[in-house]
Amino acid sequence: MYNPRFEKETFKKEVKHNVKTLYRKTIEEATPQQLFQAVSYAVKEVIIDDWIATQNQFKKDDPKIVYYMSMEFLMGRALGNNLINMTAYKEVKAALDEMGIDLNAIEDEEPDPALGNGGLGRLAACFLDSLATLGYAAYGCGIRYRYGMFKQKIENGYQVETPDNWLKEGNPFELRREEYAKEVRFGGNIRVEYDDSTNRTKFVQENYESVLAIPYDMPIVGYGNHHVNTLRIWDAKAITDFQLDSFDRGDYHKAVEQENLAKTIVEVLYPNDNHYAGKELRLKQQYFFISASIQAAITKYKKTHDDIHKLPEKVIFQMNDTHPTVAVAELMRILLDEEELGWNEAWDITTKTCAYTNHTIMAEALEKWPIDLFSRLLPRVYQIIQEIDRRFLIQVRERYPGNEEKVRKMAILYNGQVRMAHLAIVAGFSVNGVARLHTEILKNQELRDFYEMMPQKFNNKTNGITQRRFLMHGNPLLADWVTEKIGTKDWITDLSLMSGLKKYADDSKALAEFMDIKYKNKVRLAEYIRKHNGIEVDPRSIFDVQVKRLHEYKRQLLNILHVMYLYNQIKEHPEMSFFPRTFIFGAKASAGYIRAKEIIKLINSVADIVNNDRSINGKLKVVFIEDYRVSNAEIIFAAADVSEQISTASKEASGTGNMKFMLNGAPTLGTMDGANVEIVEEVGMENAFIFGLSSEEVINYENNGGYHPQDIYNSDPDIRKVVDQLINGTYSNGDHEMYRDLYNSLLCPKDGSKADMYFILKDFRAYAEAQKKVEEAYKDKERWAKMALLNTACCGKFTSDRTIQEYVDDIWHLDKVTVEI
Ligand code: 26V
Questions:
Q1: Degrees to nearest 5, angle at CA 343 with 339 and 346
Q2: Domains delineated in the chain
Q3: Pocket test for ligand 1, best of 149, 268, 273 (most atoms within 8 A of CB)
Q4: Is 554 designated active site?
Q5: pLDDT tens, 272-319?
Q6: Which residue's CA lies nearest to atom 4 of ligand 1?
Q7: 38-47: per-residue pLDDT in tens?
Q8: Catalysed reaction per UniProt (predicted)?
Q9: Which atom of ligand 1 lies nearest, measured to the CA of 652?
């Protein structure tokens, strides 16, 4: 697509102009960071036109809008992605080349906006990309954290966290929009008064603290359609004494307190993934961005509509997990107290606009706020939740007379806690899981009582990923090859066309080309590893990759124990045939998750020993990639041979990394968990390596008190040897205590939990056998190439475009917008 607005000479002039006006410099004098800024401003200039055109189109068409409410948006870098979606990447690259500027180097100057932890935040980012590309009106609503996900350093094998000051140099793509600020109130008390003139009881919040929420807007560019949506993230600012109630004016202490509240609220993203910690500041963050977002949505709606009852025709609030669930009570508050509706009317509107997505069944992730904390911080919202609960329990008792057990199990307020998931299910009209298996587990296990009472709410939306970032941008060689082979670029917006590659599955020439691209991408990753880790890896070895957050259920421990086992095998049988393998890890552990950090240390210790053992002739290498994040992920997926998806079955809701590997031609080595099940369904069992307990088996063991890892330890000498190496000093310079906790977690935990809760030893043999099959398959070059190619060819289902279209068809019912330019 030719893009006149990126005409070479015009664009070059624009960049020169920006360098001059921003920095009083010439191109030659500018630093790489300054060039990044200048180029970004030149790109933004063009985006803004489309952004305005899109907003004008919205005014004309008045489409229904989805507000995607999320505590996290793991956007990754914007420059390259925006260029791709503006269909100007190659033009701009050429223009910059002529100026002696390397676009890739410029892109590397951009910090990764890491306003998210992992899967849930990255999914939100892929969804925004697809919403804009499909032409739907959408806002992402979130928080502009001053510090995003921490930067990870590895020092002496240990993870060290340092702050991510991503805004240090300024963010060229954002717009501060002070004029749309909203006030958000915390604490105080509620005075109830009766208004005779209207016959209404009024609830007045007094003695509260408040902050101003200031929106920053970032453009979300659709692919090749001039559609630009908005990611609106909120910053906090103290309300100046000028704006304080006249009563409070001049109250110095209050002014200082509000200043502090504003500063702390948006200070940092909590780096927990799947673990609820019950921190008051976290609840403040939640209410802060939700209140501001809902207020803004209502203001916007009312500007062009006069009947608030019709809100559900124009607005959807999609809650990304339970973190934004306070939205339902905040919406009720506004409808009751500000719009002065009756309860039933307000409830009718709320339950037609709010919908909830569940992203995990891990019990420790469930948000349950202590009532005393919650009611102190959000007194009016709490009253409303009490009333929602009261009315809901009447229904439960009607449906299950005399069954107080049901009432206890389903209540929103119970045992001194507010159960956010129950609130989300009761108030939302839709509850969805993120992969078929996950949704079935929700219906039949975790949320069984709710499913029984309101089955119509439950539905599945299998996750997806955007091919624009994870193929076009991350793997341009393969992207161009795909276009050539299937004879069209249309896969960029219709991933089902990838099936056109299937006809090359037995074409030796095509297979060789495909593997040659893989090889080049492996060379690129090997260079990255040399530069960042100082480790030499052989691009001809099998690149076996596990990159994701560090969590026990994801079982990086199983992976590294297996590496230890292989190392033992090679040492014991030096004559044994063994295809060289590079095991690549990348993972951040939540700062307070001690056991996860021990696993990182173990991986690095094993790497130290194995990589420096000359006697094994480089057959085995272990690499831990520091600071795994979106930007290096793109390089890693492109270079992977094997995709490790080895979670304990039933625990991984979906996984999305699995899909990114598949897209880039890496077969899955995994359990029947999350979306792996659907991946195998698409690509065929023969093109994946599946092993281990099924989710039913895992759940069965769990319901019967676990299993006995000691039996396995006693009967399998290879496993015993590996487990013993955790405490005999092999990987710890003779220190017998360094990995004692990991050893205990497998055999005899000291914290009262079950031994080997994640079935690592139980699945070990099956995993080792599956790994053996990987090696056999890889040795047969043509067979492997065919498997790899078929993975790319069969990935069509896993585009987030498909996922979003399903959300639109079944939940949101949005209108398509065509931006006229
Ligand atoms: C949960 C919690 C719990 C409370 C405290 C802070 C916090 C922060 C983040 C999370 C998110 C955990 C849920 C999550 O990321 N789930 C992942 O969602 C992906 C997208 O649906 C899915 O592919 C992964 O399987 C799932 O683990």
A1: 55
A2: 1-61+79-111 (no CATH), 63-76+112-304 (3.40.50.2000), 473-692+763-805 (3.40.50.2000)
A3: 273
A4: yes
A5: 887 888 899 999 999 999 999 999 999 999 999 999 999 999 999 999
A6: 276
A7: 999 999 999 9
A8: [(1->4)-alpha-D-glucosyl](n) + phosphate = [(1->4)-alpha-D-glucosyl](n-1) + alpha-D-glucose 1-phosphate
A9: 25
